Structures are given as structure tokens and as C-alpha cells.
Amino acid sequence: MNEYLENIYKDLEAKYFYQKEYLNAAKEILSSLELVVNQHPELVTEKVIERFIVPDRIITFRVSWLDDNNNVQINTGYRVQFNSSIGPYKGGLRFHPSVNESILKFLGLEQVLKNALTGLPMGGGKGGADFDPKGKSDREVMRFCQSFMNELYKYIGPNEDVPAGDLGVGGREIGYMYGQYRKLVGREEGTLTGKGLTFGGSLGRTEATGYGLCYFASKALSTLRNTSFKDKRIVISGSGNVAIYACQKATELGGKVVTLSDSNGYIYDEEGIDLALVKEIKEVRRGRIKEYLEKRPSAKYVPNSKDIWSVKCDIALPCATQNELDLDDAKKLVANNVIGVFEGANMPCSLDAIKYFQDNKVIFSPGKASNAGGVAVSGLEMSQNSLRLSWTFEEVDKRLKDIMENIFDNTYKTAKEYGDEENLLLGANIFGFIKVAEAMLKQGII
Ligand code: NDP
To answer: Which residue has the CA at smallest separation from atom 11 of ligand 1?
Structure first.
């Protein structure tokens, strides 16, 4: 980082010293922009980076709701509207006890670049609440979602801000929130994405992030190593939406997925993961991944999810959560000759782990590029809602594949142009930033 960028970072650090996740994300992005700043002095005079790196606004609100025992419960809800230079704010809602302003600012900032990479006209935002849906009854989740929307609806709309799901917010929660939104505004306008298929949802949204990750990884493997998923051993972490559909597509492409995990531990199945069984456990019963062994006793369960990266593999797809893969894990993967690490989750790899992969010629793709399939299909859901049309699964899937391959091409081309050919993180940051910066410059200082 040059002195100018360093000073921007120091200012953020002084002001937000308690926001570790946000500072990490800001540092990672600022570190990529030195060459761009050198080539574009107008970015400095117009203070584009100083404007880009902080959110447009943060909305914080109280969410009061009644549990099944008629006790009043109180949570905090947030919406970080980060940047709308290229389109309405767009990004998921996360319900998890760890949710706070720092995590949402980090995710919102990443989202701005990710959405720019998709090529669709979407700005970036993120939101959620420190509510834990785990262990809550269906009615409790419904009452929470309704109360959350009673406040959020004032700030969102199809041309303003279009939230979607994220951790803890799946089809059920989106359904409850959208129902309440429609009730409050008295209109049908598709303001949330990830909706059910009977009320404006898009075919292919459920599969989009996991499938998109594999489309991106396939293109990277063929372009950079002249190889493919065929006959590769694959380690996937997580067993949620992203992990399950990454597992499905990787298997369809000829790979053998040998692990999945949850926060308690991981399963290892040398025969290849039986995905129908996993879907039954996770999607139908909402159970724990350990239950896999009840029907597949030949598989192993290791009660330490962190240890997953010591499993030998050619391709690693971290699809669980942020900071799940550190330098020690990266060393284990490299020692086992991993070819590529493609992030399905948002920032699962620590910065030193990423550097270690890059230094050891492992293909590494950041989540903002390789997991953009989810938001891309959300963008396609917005288009279908506006058109009052529903595209077929094949049509959506084809568009998704094209978008993911384009993201790879643009990221790779940009990295090459800026002199660091396989640095897809640099390429993604620069490509996304330039697009947003250009829109900001052309729209004046607002
Ligand atoms: P889900 O809530 O469906 O699943 C998350 C999975 O990760 C669960 O199996 C969870 O297990 C597991 N997990 C959580 N913490 C750990 C841990 N420390 N070690 C191992 N496993 C863990 O979420 P998604 O699949 O939707 O999202 C996963 C990641 O992908 C997140 O970072 C999200 O932001 C990102 N993402 C998701 C998109 C989407 O379309 N869904 C789009 C782009 C990014 P447990 O049940 O024990 O908590």
C-alpha cells in the first residue's frame, strides 16, 4: 500500500478500531488499489476511495417479538446500505448471534465489488439481526421475521434496496418477511429475492451459489491448468445451501467429494458423499451432519470441523463461514498438493492463508468472484419480477454459467493487465472497484 492508501486505512483504523472484520476487508481491498490510484489521479482529487470505503448509511433498529411462552424478546436489526452507484442496494440478510455492525460492513463492502463483478446493475448492501433461528419454533421464526420487517420495510423497495437470504435466512424466512412486506406496502413488487417459486421466486436460485462456484472453478482449472473436476478429490466444508449444491455440481462434473461439515465436526466418505442422504438430513430434518453415519457406517465422523483441511484433496471449496481456513490449514493443503482453493463462503480464508496459496502457485479465488452466482441469480429474479415472467431452470442455469465464466475472464484479464497474472483476488478487487469508481466519478460528488 502506498502512503495515500495507508493514510486512508489509518483513518479507518482510528475511527473503527473495534470493527475487526470491517478493517480486515477494507485493508485487503485498499492493498489492491495502488496501481489503479497511480494511473488515475482523479480518484485522489475526487476522494473516490474515501467515499467508496465507507457505507452510504447504516440503519439500526430494535426488533421486539413474542416467544412461544408469551415472553417479550428483543433483538437488534441492521441494514447497511453500502453503495448504490451502479444500481439498487442488493445483498443478503443474516440471522446469527454473531451479527454486528462490523461483520455487516465487511460483508456489505465485499458485496459492492461482488455485485459489480456480475455485470448486472446492482449496488451493494447487507443486513440482518443478532437473532438465532436455531432451536426456535416455526411460529417464533415467523413472529421474529414479521417484527423485523415492520421496521425494515421503510427503507427497502424494488428500486431502492432488494435484500435476500444469507446465513440463517433461507426460503422459510424470506417467505415470512415477504408476506409481511406485502401486507405493509399493499403492493406486489418483488422487493426480496430468494422467494418461493409460487410467489415470484426464480428457478435455480437455490442451486445458484454452489453451481456458480463450480462453473467458476471449472473455467479457472481449464484456463490456468488445462484440467477439470474429472476424477479430482474434493474437500468441501459446510453442509448448508452453498456446500450442498457445490457438492452436487462438483460430482456432476466428474469429481469425488469426500467431506462435508458443520460447526461440530466433519464427515469423511471415501466412496464419495451420498448427497441424497445429506439433503434428507439437512434440508428435510434440519439435523446435524454426524447423522450421516447412521445410514453410512463406512464413513467417518471427526468431531473437529477445523481438521477438515488435513484431508488430502486436489480441490478445496470452503463453503461454511468466514475465517474457517488459516495459515496452518493452508500449509496442510499445500503439503497435500492441492491444485485450487475456490471460496464458496465469504472470506473463509485468512489473508496469510491466501498469500501462502499464491506463493505456492495454488489457484485461489476470492468469494466475491467465485460465490457471486447467488446474487447473480437474485439479479435475474429481479429481472423476471419486473418482466412478470418466469424463465425455465435451463435458461437461468445457462445465464448463471455465462455470468460465472465472464467473472473469471474479467478477473483473470484484469490481474494479467496489472502484472500479477494468477492473482484473482487482485483482479476481482480492481475490476469491481473500477466499475463502481467510474459510476461514482460520472455522477459527481453526492
Ligand atoms: P447455511 O446457513 O445454509 O450453511 C452454513 C453451513 O456452514 C452450516 O452447515 C453450518 O453448520 C456450517 N458452519 C458454520 N460455521 C462453521 C464452522 N466454524 N465450521 C464448519 N462448518 C460451519 O449458509 P450458506 O450455505 O447459505 O452460506 C455459507 C457461506 O456462504 C456464508 O459465508 C455465506 O455468507 C456465503 N454465501 C452464501 C450465499 C448463498 O446464496 N447462500 C451467497 C454467497 C455467499 P451449523 O449448522 O453447525 O452452523
So the answer is: 262
322 CA to centre of ligand 1 in angstroms: 9
Instruction: Calculate what percentage of the chain has a pLDDT beyond 70.
Output: 100
Sign of the four-CA dihedral 295, 298, 303, 304: negative
Cell numbers 494479467: residue = 416
Tell me, what amino acid is at 161?
D
* 326 Ramachandran zone, left/alpha/beta (phi>0; psi -120 to 50): beta
State pLDDT tens for residues 131-175. Answer: 999 999 999 999 999 999 999 999 999 999 999 999 899 999 999
* Cβ atoms < 10 Å from Cβ of 353: 25
Which of 401, 5, 349, 385 is CA-nearest to residue 216? 401
Beta strands in 6-158 (DSSP E): 57-66, 72-83, 89-95, 124-129
Q: Do the beta carbons of residue 238 and residue 262 sit within 8 Å?
A: yes
Q: Which of 112, 209, 268 best tests ligand 1's pocket when mutated (most atoms within 8 Å of CB)?
A: 209
Q: Which three cell numbers stand for residue 333?
A: 493443503
Q: Which of 250-259, 276-285, 331-340 has the lowest mean pLDDT?
A: 276-285
Fold identical between 3-189 and 208-365? Answer: yes
pLDDT bracket for residue 286 (50, 70, 90): confident
Q: Cβ neighbours of residue 168 under 8 Å, at least 6 residues apart?
A: 94, 95, 96, 128, 131, 132, 133, 134
Element housing 236 (H / E): strand 233-237
**Does domain 3-189 correspond to CATH entry 1.25.40.10?**
no
Q: pLDDT tens for residues 312-346?
A: 999 999 999 989 999 999 999 999 999 999 999 98
Domain spans of the chain, in order of start:
3-189, 208-365
Lateral strand order in the sheet of 57-66: 57-66, 72-83, 124-129, 89-95, 161-164
Give pLDDT, residue 283: 85
CATH topology of domain 208-365: Rossmann fold (3.40.50)
pTM of the model: 0.95
Ligand 1 binding pocket (C-beta < 6 A) is 166-168, 209, 237-243, 261-264, 305, 319-322, 324, 344-346, 371, 374
Closest ligand 1 atom, residue 208 Cα: 40
- The CA-CA-CA angle for residues 104, 210, 353, to 5°, reads 60
